[in-house]
Design a protein that fits this description.
heterodimer, A: alpha/beta, FAD/NAD(P)-binding domain, 7-stranded mixed β-sheet, 5-stranded parallel β-sheet, 11 helices, B: mainly beta, Ubiquitin-like (UB roll), 3-stranded mixed β-sheet, 8% helix, 31% strand, globular
């Protein structure tokens, strides 16, 4: 029994781009997502935020066309859908509004994206400690902004959210960075490749400039982190900085240590995974087309290794092109031309 | 006394939803997730674990299961994954979810 040609799990950048490409090629798509609307985490709530707010920048608005592209009668969409079992024979078992459903297809694309890396230290479970990503979700989906928050950790999102908070007139109380000078030196090996993506380097540089000119205090190479609950729901945050034990009291401590692939579904089906040494995370083993060791199961986007939303859009297109070719919807010529073009663009990520 | 919210509301939305939050009548913008409304309403915690520790929302994207509350009698509801609705009754969850055992002869 086959209800659809393809089931795509996740309506973020990769899932949305894969869905629109296969649907345009004439395949019937079931697109499932656990959130209330399309966009994934990066383009969360984009439909509602298209108007006046410009805190999130041009990169965020660029997700609009992806969301519009999935409004197509070949794509059946369900949001607030919980996928709780995917089988090797390409059956997907999921719930929606308290009702269980079983759907089958000849191809399944997992585009489950990424989640923030757990960043445990004493006190990280206290109320008043949240992730930097969670603060950004609240900003995007509810228009509520952290009050005098302290940001701690490492990774691009830390700086991006700090600048968005500055733009929204709720600057962070302090920014604490966990990376050491040695880590920075070790990462220099990646500089030649990073130069190919000059745009991202400039963006990062602009973030730092904005944080500096806003006068947000920065503490670098902090360690020995500890959070304690203080009076009236505040957090007392203790850390070691340049050999001195310091403390800051804040209402909200926002923590971040990069993102890792969301591999719950791929691991549960029995897809082979490997340890990515440079990203320090497990990721599914896929070939250059996004194919896994299980026939008919494909993976696209950050759930196959962290490359960011722009790359995820391209990975989604690549998988979709492969599936269109395999189902005889496009010619070998089209397929080779298209994939070559996508792979050339992916070289820069 | 209830602690102040740790967030500022910058975007005011006029479409209001009325519901009961932790025993209090609350009005909040339509389309908000329950967790976001709890966070902007006050600095109150969401739940108490079996060992007595207080917890609040952490990831806001359905991954961590820290934001569990009781909604209309359904325990273990992830408040970050549902939108608020009129006449919803939200209670703080204390301890583990209780399982009702039906005794049929």
């Amino acid at each position: 029994m086959t209800d659809y040609d393809i089931i795509i799990i996740g309506a973020g950048p990769a899932g949305m781009s894969a869905a629109s490409v296969v649907a345009n090629g004439g395949l019937d798509v079931l697109l499932l997502d656990e959130q209330p609307d399309a966009g994934g985490q990066v383009y969360r709530n984009i439909k509602q935020n298209e108007t006046e707010q410009n805190w999130f920048g041009n990169d965020y608005s660029s997700g609009k066309h992806l969301v519009n592209a999935i409004n197509c009668n070949k794509i059946t969409k369900y949001f607030n859908a919980t996928v709780w079992r995917v089988e090797k024979n390409k059956r997907v078992i999921w719930s929606h509004n308290g009702e269980s459903k079983i759907s089958a297809a000849s191809h399944i694309v997992l585009a489950t994206g990424a989640q923030e890396r757990p960043f445990p230290f004493p006190g990280w479970t206290l109320p008043g400690v949240m992730t930097v990503g969670s603060a950004q979700i609240l900003m995007k989906s509810s228009g509520i902004f952290p009050k005098e928050a302290v940001l701690v950790g490492s990774g691009p999102l830390l700086y991006l959210v700090a600048t968005q908070m500055i733009d929204a007139n709720c600057p962070p109380k302090a920014l604490l960075e966990t990376q050491t000078l040695r880590m920075m030196m070790n990462s220099l090996i990646h500089l030649p490749k990073a130069l190919l993506n000059m745009k991202s380097l400039i963006k990062g540089f602009m973030f730092i400039q904005k944080i500096k000119s806003a006068g947000v205090p920065r503490y670098k190479s902090v360690s020995r982190l500890k959070a304690q609950s203080s009076e009236n729901g505040s957090i007392k945050f203790l850390f070691l900085h340049k050999g001195i034990r310091r403390s800051l009291t804040t209402k909200l401590l926002l923590i971040h240590q990069g993102v890792i692939p969301s591999t719950e579904i791929s691991r549960s089906i029995g897809v082979d995974h490997s340890w990515n040494k440079s990203q320090l995370a497990f990721q599914p083993i896929i070939d250059k087309w996004g194919k896994t060791n299980i026939d008919g199961i494909y993976i696209a986007g950050d759930c196959a290794g962290i490359n960011g939303s722009n790359a995820a859009v391209l990975y989604g297109k690549k998988v979709a092109t492969k599936i269109l070719y395999e189902t005889g919807k496009v010619s070998f010529y089209f397929y080779t031309k298209q994939s070559l073009c996508i792979r050339t663009r992916l070289f820069f990520y | 006394m209830k602690p102040d919210s740790k967030f500022d509301i910058l975007v005011k939305n006029t479409k209001d939803v009325n519901f009961t939050l932790f025993g209090e009548a609350v009005t909040a913008p339509k389309g908000s997730t329950l967790a976001a409304v709890i966070l902007s309403h006050s600095g109150d915690t969401f739940r108490q674990t079996e060992t007595g520790a207080l917890r609040s929302a952490f990831c806001m994207m359905g991954v961590c299961f820290e934001c569990l509350v009781e909604v209309n009698g359904n325990q273990n509801t992830q408040s970050c994954m549902i939108l608020i609705e009129d006449k919803m009754v939200v209670k703080r969850q204390v301890g583990l979810r209780q399982i009702e055992i039906c005794e049929n002869d």
